[in-house]
Amino acid sequence: MPPQSGTVLGGKEPCLDAPQLFTWEEIGLRSGKGNSKEERWLVINRKVYDVSKFYWRHPGGRRVISHYSGQDATDAFTAFHKDEDLVKKYLSSLLIGELAPDQPSSEPTKKDMLIQDFRELHSTVKRSGLLKASYPFFAFMFLHAFLIDIASWLVIWYFGKTWAPFLIGVALFTIAQIQYGFLQHDLGHVSVFQKPKWNRLAHHIVAGILKGGPPSWWNHMHNQHHAKPNCFRKDPDLNMHPLLFSLGKPLSEELGKKKKKYMPYQHQHKYFILLAPMTFVVFVQLIIIRFAIQRKKWMEFSFIVFYNIRVCLMFVPLMGFKTFMAFYWLARFLESTWFLWVSQMNHIPMNIDYDKNLDWVSAQLAATCDVDQSLFNDWYTGHLNFQIEHHLFPTMPRHNYWKVAPLVKSLCAKHGIKYQCKPLLTAFADILHTLKESGEHWLDAYIHA
């Protein structure tokens, strides 16, 4: 068996030019947990990297790279880094060795044949140009949101603040904000421009000036979601468990057995409709300010201030401060409702559990599903009706999801993986059905455990 790290043969020091060889057992111990809290190793293409110090300054966020500590991160690395040449300068200084020759390329929890087939698919997708964006498409998406935004002001300016123009203005303002949100989502995934720096610049403009939020907070939260979707303690989208909702059968039963009850979870499918968006509105407004100040993101904080001043100057002279407050918070509530139903229709009905260290494809398919394609569904969801394709290829521009979907379906069929696609209204209903089932699992465990 090849020597492991730190092994000395015959009492002699190993050759300095020879790479250190590691086993998966050794790497698994460097997960940042237990007795190795200060050590974080991960594997990319059989190379072993020590990110114990680097993770604090990882451009994509410290937590997203920490979630792969002690694991193979090859496919996640490929999925997130559009310009691999750009990140090679970071990797070389972190390299400490490689897997021993007798070690498999991935852990036993992962499917080797599926991994190889997906990597071939990824290479095909890249060669076919499906990771390159159509600038006219994104120019149209920006322009239509911008014109709707202006229209919301023009309606109030021309017709006054009576009920009809007030509600029409709210509707238009909400649509503009949600479409800006989808656009900043594209920019955050560096799927609009080929160069990451141009995506980051545009992301600051759209997320900061047009929406009033810090893009670095979005990156910090959303990258974790993509790295480990529906994995409790790693996906921040599950932070609503257990304070507000009990999610997934395993987590719900665990909560019930511990006799914990923060909310009447057996009724969560009823209070989700109002409580989720109301909480989200307040949470987002407070957390983005706290994040910007705590992380000293002063430029992003100035964008938040600028956005709120801009919106006030646009609408307060037309309707007065009190009416504007009603206008603004109603729009925010509607936007949050829209966003939550669209973002959760693909995830809450799927498997929710602790990280099982599955391969990239299995992990994404277990946590995501698709919604039927149509012009309306594509627009209404910002193409997130193709959630499976988006999660498998997070840097792919959304107008290409439909092109890669048949290839993904074929891959799933070959390896016996369930590919779920459903009508939009069914996807919405499944949120409530799943919450109801999770609440029942919690109640049963709470009473009988």
TrEMBL record:
Gene Ontology annotations for the cellular component aspect, listed alphabetically: membrane
Cytochrome b5 heme-binding domain sequence ranges: 19-100
Signal peptide bounds: none
InterPro entries hit by this protein: Cyt_B5-like_heme/steroid-bd, Cyt_B5-like_heme/steroid_sf, FA_desaturase_dom, Fatty_acid_desaturase
Single Gene Ontology MF annotation: oxidoreductase activity, acting on paired donors, with oxidation of a pair of donors resulting in the reduction of molecular oxygen to two molecules of water
Alphabetized CDD domains for the sequence: Delta6-FADS-like
BP terms from Gene Ontology: fatty acid biosynthetic process
Transmembrane regions listed in the UniProt entry: 135-157, 163-183, 271-293, 305-331
Keywords assigned by UniProt, alphabetized: Fatty acid biosynthesis, Fatty acid metabolism, Lipid biosynthesis, Lipid metabolism, Membrane, Transmembrane, Transmembrane helix
Metabolic or biological pathway: Lipid metabolism; polyunsaturated fatty acid biosynthesis
Protein name in the entry: Acyl8-3-desaturase-likeCoA 8-3-desaturase-like
Species this protein is from: Podarcis lilfordi (Lilford's wall lizard)
